[in-house]
Design goal:
This protein has 179 residues and is mainly alpha-helical. The chain contains six helices and two strands, in the order ααααααββ. α2 packs antiparallel against α3, α2 runs antiparallel to α4 and α5 runs antiparallel to α6.
């Protein structure tokens, strides 16, 4: 959990930064900059996701050794499985947290809350359901990426509703803002 929290905290921090960036550009009426900020934020979190996902997926056993004083085979096996289930989806959850930062910065708190609670409800519901299957604890961890994936789709759908994607009139012609 500590290893996973380290990653998620990093993504959340970048999402908070994009929130401030969005609010400033919205206030300055620089709507195309918000889209550029989202793209830059995604590049940053994905550059962070790649080495961490690879490290956790392939080297999880060694990284776990930093946190387990006298690791048992069962503890190592459990930790490695946890990291292998979650780490490939760091790209997904990081994108959600960046999109959520844009939503918060734009004051679209209702949309942000819907996406966030969608994630929470799906993860808890699926964890309860999957825990009772032969997957056991692994089923609980599988609930996380499922919740992340659906909530990420929600966050990006809500992002598309932002004022930076609305039609504008320029010299009498209706046009779509650049995406």
């Amino acid at each position: 959990m500590k290893l996973n929290n380290l990653v998620i905290t990093s993504f959340t921090t970048l999402g908070n930064g994009i929130s401030n960036y969005t609010a400033q550009n919205l206030g300055a009426k620089k709507l195309p900059s918000i889209q550029e900020g989202l793209r830059a934020g995604l590049k940053l979190v994905w550059l962070l996701s790649l080495p961490l996902a690879l490290l956790y997926f392939f080297g999880g056993r060694y990284v776990l050794g930093l946190f387990l004083e006298l690791p048992t085979a069962e503890a190592l096996q459990t930790g490695v499985m946890f990291l292998r289930v979650l780490s490939p989806f760091y790209f997904v959850v990081s994108a959600k947290l960046v999109a959520d930062g844009v939503l918060r910065g734009a004051g679209m708190m209702d949309k942000f809350m819907i996406a966030t609670f969608t994630d929470l409800i799906i993860r808890v519901t699926l964890a309860v359901l999957l825990a009772g299957t032969p997957l056991g604890a692994t089923g609980i961890w599988c609930a996380w990426p499922m919740g992340w994936s659906i909530a990420t789709a929600c966050s990006f759908a809500f992002y598309r509703l932002g004022p930076w994607n609305q039609r504008v009139t320029h010299n009498g012609y209706e046009m779509q803002r650049p995406t």
